[in-house]
Specification:
34% of the residues lie in helices and 26% in strands. It is α+β, with helices and mostly antiparallel strands. It binds flavin-adenine dinucleotide (FAD).
């Protein structure tokens, strides 16, 4: 019997395996695919130093009506999905009320603040410095009024949380990003954010580091998990694999497994789409085109264009209308060239309605641990919450109790 099974080899699971290995545990990492081939592949690759306040549900009636009427491009929804999402949306609404959101942001900012420092040694030891850029992240504006509103908010965030920001004029933006078409109003630049030109590749490089340090990875279905002889077992290709403890790090799939153990996790899956383009312009840093709520991120494969959030049933067919609109809008500000893939990639941001990842002991099962629900920032936060979870699993004390499943009223 080994020490720990880590179920799921996305950024969160691979980081967990590394942190537990560092703490002296024998770890078997389980995935039905290769490392970093799902959500941890499809994201914008930003290690976000600026994301100190997690996205609340908009509370203004005007914004809610605009979303309901599908007027903007930041949120889309499938009407058929709404009945099943009522509970998570209600919990999300409660957590988004200003006083509660402020409290959550305090915890969140504490995690975000250490994220680049937690990635740094892993990047170096995994030999992945060549795919990391330390050129920041831009929010780009086409007209003055939204730029000015964003300047006010960004300066407040920078002041309250002690992070760096700068405002770029139209000419400064053109100098920073020469492939953007002229005439944009300007940008907010967050210089402390990093980005990765191959997010799936970085996750794989971390998994290879875990293997090179003596770890073991097995292709198996985590859905076969069961409790046995005071430990946890998964059916592997060559027979059962058992450990004293198991960590569920299955990202958006985590609630499917935990339902069998009696946990009803109100995870809100915010779908996103992407597609790569080559042969046109490129960027020195990822950017949000604020007008179309579309992110453009330079990758090894080409310029990755990513959509905002879509609320749908997990198994609903893809409806990449936000990505289509975002691509049309992006081509007004940069030459995109030609699409690489015939169809867009689709995946899900695994969001807890209280906007904090779950990292800690399962409330009703000995030796079972939760580690998922990192929402919009799991690529950023994987190594950070992994270090916190490993500390709790080693010392029995939760360093950030707000992340513990037992302290979360939404699980009761
Ligand atoms: C469009 C988009 C853009 C984003 N941009 C950013 C960004 O710029 N920065 C950032 O920090 N975050 C970003 N995110 C969020 C980030 O990608 C996720 O929070 C993060 O990847 C979640 O990692 P994970 O390891 O929890 O999940 P995953 O990467 O999905 O890993 C889960 C793993 O579980 C495995 N699995 C599932 N079921 C089973 C089973 N039954 N048996 C075995 N294995 C199983 C899967 O194969 C997978 O490898 C973005 C997300 C999206 C969708």
């Amino acid at each position: 019997m080994t020490d720990v099974l880590v179920l799921g080899a996305g950024m969160v699971g691979v980081s967990t395996a590394l942190a537990l290995q560092e703490a002296g545990r024998d770890v078997v990492l389980i995935d039905r695919r290769g490392a970093g081939e799902e959500t941890s592949y499809g994201n914008a690759g930003v290690i976000q130093a600026e994301a100190v306040e997690p996205y609340p549900l908009p509370l203004s009636l005007k914004t809610l009506l605009s979303i309901a009427a599908k007027r903007g491009n930041d949120v889309n929804y499938h009407l058929s999905a709404l009945p099943s999402l009522l509970r998570p949306i209600w919990l999300y609404f409660q957590s988004s009320l200003p006083a509660r959101h402020k409290q959550i942001s305090k915890t969140y900012a504490g995690l975000i603040k250490r994220a680049t420092a937690d990635h740094a040694p892993l990047i170096t030891e995994a030999g992945a410095d060549n795919i990391i850029r330390k050129t920041g992240l831009r929010f780009v504006y086409r007209s003055e009024a939204p730029l000015e509103a964003s300047v006010r908010d960004s300066e407040r965030i920078a002041r309250e949380y002690g992070i760096e920001v700068s405002v770029e004029s139209s000419a400064e933006l053109a100098a920073s990003e020469p492939h953007l078409r002229p005439g944009l109003a300007g940008a907010i630049h967050w210089p402390q954010s990093w980005s990765c030109a191959d997010p799936g590749g970085l996750t794989k490089a971390y998994a290879d580091l875990f293997l090179s340090r003596g770890g073991c990875m097995v292709t198996a279905d985590a859905a076969s998990l069961y409790a046995q002889n005071g430990g946890w077992t998964v059916e592997g290709p060559e027979g059962p694999i058992s450990a004293r403890e198991a960590v569920v790090a299955l990202g958006p799939w985590s609630p499917l497994l935990l339902k069998r153990f009696g946990y009803d996790i109100p995870l809100l899956r915010k779908r996103g789409y992407h597609r790569h383009f080559t042969g046109g312009g490129t960027l020195n840093a990822p950017m949000l085109d604020a007008a179309s709520a579309t992110v453009l991120s330079p990758m090894l494969t080409g310029l990755r264009v990513l959509s905002g959030a879509e609320l749908s049933r997990f198994d609903a067919p893809p409806t990449p209308c936000q990505l289509s609109r975002g691509t049309r809008a992006a081509s007004q500000i940069i030459d995109l060239g030609k699409p690489v893939e015939a169809e867009p990639w689709v995946g899900n941001r695994p969001c807890m309605p209280d906007m904090l990842p779950l990292a800690g002991k399962a409330p009703r099962h000995e030796g079972l641990w939760f580690h998922f629900g990192h929402g919009h920032q799991g690529f950023t936060l994987g190594p950070t919450t992994a270090a916190l979870l490993a500390e709790e699993m080693t010392t029995g004390r939760a360093p950030v109790p707000e992340l513990s499943p037992s302290n979360r009223t939404l699980l009761s």
